[in-house]
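Dear Dr. H.,

I hope your travels went smoothly. While you were away I took the liberty of generating a structure for the chain from your last submission, since the lab meeting agenda had it listed for discussion. I wanted you to have the full record in hand beforehand rather than looking at slides cold. The sequence, exactly as received, is reproduced here:
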Amino acid sequence: MKLPTFGELAFSLKTFAAAMLALYIAFSMDLQRPFWAMLTVYIVANPYSGAVRSKAVYRVVGTLIGSAVTLLLVPNLVNAPELLLLALALWIGLCIYISLLDRTPRSYLFLLAGYTCALIGFPSVSNPAGIFDVALARVEEITLGIVCASLIHSLIFPVPVGPSILARIDGARKKASAWSLNALNRVQDTDSDRRNMSATLSELRILATHLPFDTSRLSWAARLVNALCDQLALMLPLLYAIEDRLHSLGELSEPWQALLARIAAWIDAGANPAEAEALQDQLKALTPAPQEDWQEMLLINLAARLSALIQAWSDTAKIRHGMGQTSSILSAELETIVGHTGIRTLHFDRGIAFRSALTAAISILLSGAFWIISAWPSGLMAPVMAAVACSLFATLDDPAPAIKATFILSFATIPISAFYLLAAMPAASSFGMLALLMFPTFLILGVFMLRPASAFPALMITLIIASTLALQDTAMADMNSFLNNKVGELTGIACALFVTSLIRSFSSEWIVNRLLRAGWRDLAQLSHAAIPSPAFTARMIDRLGLLAPRLSLLADTQPARDVLIDLRIGHEITVLIRYQEQLPEQIKALLAQLSQYFLQRPHTASRPLLAQLDQTLHGAIRAPNAAVQLNLIAALVGIRRDLFPQAAPYQETKS
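The corresponding predicted structure, in token form, is as follows:
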């Protein structure tokens, strides 16, 4: 076994110190369940101090909302347990639904607002008169844990997220640079490398959400990070298009080869924005005039894609340079770049969100019905754990394996939980003795929480042990009550596993297909739009990030190419929309056929669509404005190559 690193030990020691501080204060304040404070410390624990604070804020607000809803429901419905059960199940399901549609760090708030009702509401049914005291105590205990975790992680060896983000950004730029050089030099990259790139960008976006709470000089730079990620993500479809056009064109003339070499050298040297204009001028000089020749049309499309790649690299360099400033006030140029690329329109799936909410509601209703019918006092733990299990793993494609692992770990840790509840607590003559008894177990678990291979089981074991102490009355615990509560917990987790397996278990392939279909629906709607939609690009880039970790589980890499092709086609369609008044009849007819095609996907593109593309190309060549000609030809050639890669070259349309 690998020895712990300084970072792992520091994280584990800081988290344990924060947990013991919270526990000591909770005992001193004579709070009802002091171990709630300790449990909260481990729930919000994160190696980055900014992430601890950001998660803490949402946890406090979510707890307050959940407590308020519980105070509203339980006293009014306690005499009708069936209605109370239904109300709590619907509320928790609604919170999960909203959380999955939000897809920002704020989503954690809604999850907490949901299962906090279960944690407070179900145990309070037997004593509704004391529910206000219970709710107030939970808020105090959780807030105490959050404050202690935030203080310790912020004051003792704080780990800011900013330097980690900069290191990952520089690593992502190096990868993008290598792929750009390979594309320009006609060296094929592997799809796995590009998928890893997309996964890196997704991780960067998640880390950027914690920047406003960070202690580094980058605390203001979340917009810059997102804008830079957008630029890097846009390079992927550009590079695919450039590779395709270079492959189709074959051997290029010497001036074109020299230009490609110059662009590659510029990117390799760091993509100095000051030199971008000269490259663009040389590219314009080599771009052929519009004519009825397929090779020349491909060169026009290649020139457009190279121009976009140069612009993306230039903007990326400007954004990265902007991250070095200490002020949050951006220059007008940088503000324009960030404002253009920073549109945060994310993909969401109402169908999956609804099925997740339905799964939680049914699990709670079934386990709650078992509790009511059996009249078993410890049965209240079943709906509590069903709510927690369904909430914690709602974001996974298939939560069943994680819930199953939680069931196994909960069962396997019974001896450890029993030791602390029934042996360590009664034997500890002082708080120092109790902390000493807890230290070895929680120190080891804290170290393994930072290791990717063991992070999930270590975290779950830690939370299971801490929750056993939090959910039980440690002053009155005995073996009988402990085992009864454990059986109740396992019953709730088993119920959640059963319902999840029936309703909410999706394969990665199924999720990938839904993401692709969502993109096709967007393309169909985009083809009907009166003006270009910047939200389309933002959603497609987001979908690319969502696909990345899922595609690593699939042998077929075609979905990644499909999304990149769809992203390229979406860009070409926005060009057609922008210039549709130049060729109203041809372009509107083409947009209608494109809309129909994407509504019918995954069917293959039809010959009439190819004929309409060629007819529109013929019209574009004769457009009166030279700039309009080039833009339309580049867009139409791109769509033709993406939809009909095996089709014969364009032939002049006879009038």
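Two observations you may find useful: The chain has a mean pLDDT of 87. Residues 49-77 form the longest helix (29 residues).

With kind regards,
E. W.
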